Amino acid sequence: MTIRPICITGEPVLHTVAEEVKVFDNELRQLVEDMYQTMDEAPGVGLAATQVGVGLRVFTYNWTEDDGTHLRGVVINPELELGPISDDEPDDETESEGCLSFPTYRFPIKRADYALLTGVDLEQNPVKIEAHGWLARIFQHEFDHLDGLLYIDKLRNEFKVEVEEITNEEGWGVDGLSWLPGKDKIEA
Questions:
Q1: Per-residue pLDDT tens for 150-161?
Q2: SS3 at position 98
């Protein structure tokens, strides 16, 4: 397994719709193993293939529920059905997200509290997970990556100026920027 560099906003693969996986081979298996290793080292609760520079519809997740249930897996060619999303203002404390591709910053964003995730695993077995709360949020966040969106693209207007200022101050928003978990001093 190899820890892969994580792309920072501005890298074209992050802003492009990922392609469906058609070939299930050792190269895909290696990608998924590397994604788990990279996600764990970052550390993160999810990682999309686009975040490591691969434009395929694949994401990994790693989450422990309040009751101690540990959920870890990969979903390939996911589909996502969502419950309603409130028009209320997002709560700064309970609805703030971060992103390994916009590292160290967090912003509040409204998400559906329910998501039904379907797809397949590495052996092409069906995956079907009903998620609530933070797991539903993780699935929505990673699914957005596969559609070429970062969570910062979906923030309310009052945060867009701040995101633009951060992007300019950090020198992000251009092709070729990444960070390597375990080596670079970035905390997400």
A1: 999 999 999 999
A2: strand
Q: Which of 47, 48, 60, 61 is closest to 18 using CA atoms? A: 48
Tokens coding 48? 């999309």
Torsion angle defined by CA atoms of residues 144, 146, 148 and 152, in that order, rounded to the nearest 10 degrees = 30
CA distances from residue 138 to 54, 111, 141, 166, 168 in whole angstroms, order as listed: 19, 10, 5, 23, 27
Choosing from 11, 89, 142, 165, the catalytic residue is 142
In the residue annotation, 142 being an active-site residue is answered as yes
3 state DSSP class of 117 = strand
Specify the pTM: 0.95
What is the tens place of the pLDDT at every residue in 41-99?
A: 999 999 999 999 999 999 999 999 989 999 999 999 999 999 999 999 999 999 999 99
